[in-house]
Amino acid sequence: SAVISQKPSRDICQRGTSLTIQCQVDSQVTMMFWYRQQPGQSLTLIATANQGSEATYESGFVIDKFPISRPNLTFSTLTVSNMSPEDSSIYLCSVDPAGGFFGYTFGSGTRLTVV
Amino acid sequence: AQKITQTQPGMFVQEKEAVTLDCTYDTSDQSYGLFWYKQPSSGEMIFLIYQGSYDEQNATEGRYSLNFQKARKSANLVISASQLGDSAMYFCAMSFTGANSKLTFGKGITLSVRP
Questions:
Q1: CB distance B8 to B107 below 8 Å
Q2: Cα A23–Cα A24–Cα A26 angle in degrees, nearest 5
Q3: Pairing of strands A10-13, A110-114
Q4: Residue B92 and residue B78: Cα distance in Å, rounded?
Q5: Which chain A residues contact residue B2 at CB under 8 A?
Q6: A residues 50..69 contacting B (CB < 8 A)
Q7: By the CB < 8 Å criterion, does A40 face chain B?
Q8: Do residues A115 and B47 touch, judged by C-beta distance below 8 A?
Q9: Are B115 and B87 in contact (CB under 8 A)?
């Protein structure tokens, strides 16, 4: 299965600033998925990132707040913009390298605290 | 639309005993995949087991087995011989079969293993 390196693992940020999270995959994948996990909650999909086109955002998430880049088939970034304490969450990237038959692989997560 | 339901409150099990974590799902699609993930306090998402909607046999992976009852739309996870390291959040998830399909998660169940 694919291995994902996600950075940073955690950060404490001031409100009003932005943080960019990176995910590097050790193999080429068509789609990368970005999730948010608010404290004590389940994972919610933010957007799906396809190389060469704009990301597809889920209801409740907008590009201005969560811009995503996908410059090639092994790398993606998610930016959390103009942060507020409500953005304090774990952010995870995920890929599905095998058509769903062997489990989606997740990055180790970025634990973000906004103060 | 897909929906995953996990309604159990926090679960407790004695070390070395078996435990069943419940999951029901709702979809009108005939081809789908069901997954269980473990999330320890570190926040990483660990893939445990996969069941395809057309699989006739229940999936097993070591101490994990999936009790798949398609007519009842349930996909319960059975953990045998519980270990202290099994204490974590457990998420049931679902996707449409095929590459690049997003995962939809249940709200999760907290499992605590008592020594």
A1: no
A2: 145
A3: parallel
A4: 12
A5: none
A6: none
A7: no
A8: no
A9: no
> What is the token pair recorded at B22?
């419940």
Q: Cβ–Cβ of A96/B43 closer than 8 Å? A: no
Q: Which two tokens stand for residue B73?
A: 């739309």
Single-letter amino acid code for the residue at A39: P
In a structure prediction context, what are the per-residue pLDDT tens digits for chain B, which is 115 residues long?
Answer: 789 999 998 999 999 999 999 999 998 888 889 999 999 999 999 999 999 999 889 999 999 999 999 999 999 999 999 999 999 999 999 987 655 688 899 999 999 999 9
Please name the residue that has the structure tokens 């704009």: A54
Give residues with Cβ within 8 angstroms of B77, minimum separation 6: B20, B21, B23, B36, B48, B49, B64, B65, B66, B67, B90, B92
Q: What residues of chain A lie within 8 A of the CB of B106, using their CB?
A: 42
CA-to-CA separations, A8 to A21, A39, A91, A95, A112, in angstroms, rounded = 6, 18, 10, 18, 9
Which amino acid, A85?
Answer: P
